[in-house]
């Protein structure tokens, strides 16, 4: 067992080490495993702190004989991060080295005495010797030399994926595995601020339509074929490991969230495709990611998880993606709703793969031949072509599916049949018929996604329009204001504002509904057209009771999801009888 090393870091509110994290795969800082420390800094320039922290880290690494380790530092308003690469069997030690360097850095900045560097090095070397696992390191290197991927966690080591995988305890590794049994399967990574779950589900469905045992890990569940292995948010490395260790799996699709990339890095190193759907303001302020351009760097880090021949699939209609991609070196396939976008015209001129919308048709090019795949209006997800964000998702999924070796016939079949319902795509513009009205349920939770779905539904004819608003309390007042204003793209005649009692997250009861009501009034809605509800379920019930033929309703739901689906199912069952 690894000895815990107690490092007496000075306690001062102006210099706080917010944590050290092991990175088990490619990450924001590079392609190698390693560790990163997060520091919160006030009263001192972050650049000065990072320079001193890096100096002590290099001193410790040199004394330990870690000459091959690379350092990457970054500063931001209010703090800095420092990364060091390390082999797969030295990640805990790497985190200790970062912490030890922080100890010497802060001791100097605070004019406090510190123990001799040589004594600290002795402790770190002792920990490194305890953690060292030569068979582990050798096996990982041998797999990389053979072009075979690996999965890491605390006590297990996997080579290959799915049907070509084997897993061992890190304490009982084989000296020479049967390499003929080990291989990777086609895997796609999907990230972005919005659309990643839908895109993940589409690609997995395309694999299934091609006759493969297809599976996915996502924010909702991990699924192989028709079997749900577990429910919950599995958009991080744990979900990837659970999926890719299943020996039935032939094609895998991993939804990859920002948090997973930052906390542990990417789960694999040899994906055949990586998709970035878009980048918008969401979850800023964590792990030193304070701006949308910085968030874009995190999202586009998925290119570091690609195999050498892997394809990075990017949205040419997203200015931030386009800008960040300028510094990314990867085989790239762009998609766009505009055939005249520079990225599309350049790709076609250079005979590189791309996808676009033209004259209402979804077209793909493999670099040699253009194929009109399907009319956008014939894709149920697009609601007759008005949900343009789902045309983007369809393009991204189709390009990724091709990169995984899925034939066009299977891609076309899925695009023509995959629906926005609780079976194919739960929580994404799911449509129900209620009292002769059209009712949609969506889990959109940030201004970008809410504006996308409300703008699409605004193009759907309706006599009256209703919308249910509720949200978690950990958003700022400015964020909530933006969410409500985005919702008004629907042109609502009635708004129901619901409390979210399970997700107050520090706000007093009633605070968030009052704010959403005030913003709705500011948008010009009469006070008697703003209804209040004690929960999302109660809000949904109020809307359902008021619906008449020709109306349209949108329920933006973050809690009570299953209760609301059950309520809608009972309404439809009653209508059927």
How is this structure best described in words?
With about 575 residues, the chain is an alpha/beta fold. Helix content is about 35%, strand content about 25%. The protein has 17 helices and 24 strands. Strands 11-10-9-12-8-13-14-15-16-17-18 form an 11-stranded mixed beta sheet, with helices on both faces. A hairpin with a 4-residue loop joins strand 17 (about 360-365) and strand 18. Helix 5 packs across helix 11 (about 390-405) and helix 11 runs antiparallel to helix 12 (about 410-415). The model has no long low-confidence stretch (mean pLDDT about 95).
Explain the layout of strands and helices.
Blueprint: E1 15-23, E2 34-41, H1 46-64, E3 71-76, E4 79-85, H2 91-109, H3 117-131, H4 134-145, E5 150-152, E6 156-159, E7 166-169, E8 187-191, H5 196-209, E9 214-217, E10 221-224, E11 227-231, H6 237-244, E12 251-255, H7 258-264, E13 271-276, H8 292-300, E14 306-315, H9 319-325, E15 331-336, H10 342-349, E16 354-358, E17 361-365, E18 370-375, H11 388-403, H12 408-417, E19 430-434, E20 437-442, H13 447-458, E21 465-469, H14 477-487, E22 494-498, H15 511-522, E23 530-533, H16 536-546, E24 552-556, H17 561-576
Parallel strand pairs: 8-12, 8-13, 9-12, 13-14, 14-15, 15-16, 20-24, 21-22, 21-24, 22-23
Antiparallel strand pairs: 1-2, 2-4, 3-4, 5-6, 6-7, 9-10, 10-11, 16-17, 17-18, 19-20
Helix pairs in contact: 1-2, 2-3, 5-11, 5-12, 8-9, 11-12, 13-14, 14-15, 16-17
Q: What characteristics describe this protein?
A:
about 575 residues; 24 strands; six-stranded mixed sheet; eleven-stranded mixed sheet; alpha/beta
